[in-house]
Amino acid sequence: MQDKIKHIIDSCFENLVNWREHIHANPELSFQEYKTSEFVASKLDEMNIPYQQGIVKTGIVALINGRNPEKQCIALRADLDALPIVEENEAPYKSKIDGVMHACGHDVHTTCLLGAAKVLNELRDEFEGTVKLIFQPGEEKLPGGASLLIEAGVLENPKVDKIVALHVYPAMEVGKVGFKEGQYMASCDELYLNVEGKGGHAALPDQYHNPVLLIAELLPALQSYVESLAVDEKFVLAFGKLYADGATNVIPTTAHAEGTLRTMNEKWRLSIHQKMQAFVNSFLEENNAKGVLEIRKGYPFLNNDEALTRTCKKAAQDYLGTPNVEDMGIRMTAEDFSFYSQEVPACFFRLGVRNQEKGIIHGVHTSQFDIDKQALKYGAGLMAYLALKALD
Fold first, then answer.
1. Residue 10: its pLDDT value, please?
2. Does 212 lie in the same domain as 144?
């Protein structure tokens, strides 16, 4: 079976490269992936794979039925959206859309799933069960396309028993993959803090109540408070944006901060939301100020089912060779694939795309991110093989 998969992948590798470069050159932001969706649909048409289009506007779900299709169903998922980043690469496939770039590798994910679809469709008489292909919009933007697709019934009809997805990993050399059983990635919430004082002329301090000083005192106090409550919890609390619309001699009325909260414990996460808001309210009251901490609940933590991930890791060792399969540690980054992992047994693994000799070394969410195109071969082939092994 491995030989058959690798033969099919080798025969269509040029297509995979072309598909990825086309998607990369024509990126679309979250929930706006109309042309990307049409492109995916056109390739499924060429493969004669039936699909439903327009789920949450741009999502696509396709089915590949093997023998005895009702036996079980495994889903494979890829995300479609790009990021609001100006690309600085000078490759022929550089983004044609100003300020939009596939800087997180979703063009790679989509291409790998199309490649896996080609393999599985050609081998559909050699496995039992159904493979559901999920091409998902909006991974990069709350509330996350995964949550919306689940609400739309993507895990039903047929009911999904297991789900697998991959993500590019620029820190890992091409030809390698990585797995982590159990908890793998953090939940992610967005924080919006607004502090209201009293504005005025900077030369008249008795006539204003400076919100800039208030928020500058509040942020480290909040950090220390959360740390005091997280003795045994792994978490990140960070504010990356701070602004107030004043001037050298103008004290503004309000100051704002935006940040993120990430945890690995859903119960503690809900508890700390309430305690953070109570702390902020108390601080503002004590300092004769007004304001609010808005917490926009994002993605839950991502849990890799231990049995499924163990099966996938062993299959990857068979397919790529044991030295090319690595163990991953817990990451405080977030992914909306976590919504699926809260519903059905899931495996989310990493695909190496780095090539030091070629200068392909830049991380995701950067303007120079790129991949070694050989990663498409490993990603597509391995996804297909993992689906087959999971259906055994």
1. 97
2. no
Q: DSSP readout, 249-267? A: TEE-SEEEEEEEEEES-HH
- Secondary structure of 276-342 as H, E, C letters: HHHHHHHHHHHCCCEEEEEEEEEECCEEECHHHHHHHHHHHHHHHCHHHEEECCCECCCCCCHHHHC
Alpha helices in the chain (DSSP H): 2-25, 34-46, 106-122, 145-151, 211-229, 266-286, 306-320, 338-341, 374-391
Q: For 51-78, write each residue's pLDDT tens digit.
A: 999 999 999 999 999 999 999 999 999 9
Q: Which two tokens stand for residue 380?
A: 């597509």
Question: For 65-83, b where at least 16 C-beta lie within 10 A, e where not — what string?
Answer: bbeebeebbbbbbbbbbbb
Co-location of 215 and 277 in the same domain: yes
Q: Which residues contact 380 (CB under 8 A, 6 or more apart)?
A: 9, 16, 111, 112, 113, 114, 115, 116, 118, 119
Last residue of a domain, one of 268, 298, 328: 298
137 and 218 housed in the same domain: no
Rounded to an integer, the average pLDDT of 271-299 is 97
Euclidean distance between CA atoms 58 and 80, whole angstroms = 9
DSSP H or E segment with residue 242: strand 235-243
* Domain co-membership, 58 together with 99: yes
Read off the tokens for 264: 């690995």
Domain encompassing residue 236: 188-298
Phi then psi for residue 361, to 5 deg, are -135, 0
Q: What is the phi-psi region of residue 381: left when phi exceeds 0, alpha when psi lies from -120 to 50, beta otherwise?
A: alpha
Please report which confidence band the pLDDT of residue 231 belongs to, taking 50, 70 and 90 as the band edges: confident
- Same domain (yes/no): 55, 177: yes
At a CB cut-off of 8 Å and minimum separation 6, what does 269 contact?
A: 187, 189, 261, 263
Distance, in Å, from the CA atom of 342 to the CA atom of 331, rounded to the nearest integer, reads: 17
Same-domain check for residues 67 and 102: yes
Q: Which of the 8 DSSP states describes residue 127?
A: S
At residue 124, the 3 state secondary structure works out as helix
Are residues 326 and 274 part of one domain?
A: no
| pLDDT of res. 286 | 97
- Does residue 133 sit in helix, strand or coil? strand
Q: Are strands 254-263 and 188-196 parallel, antiparallel or unpaired?
A: antiparallel
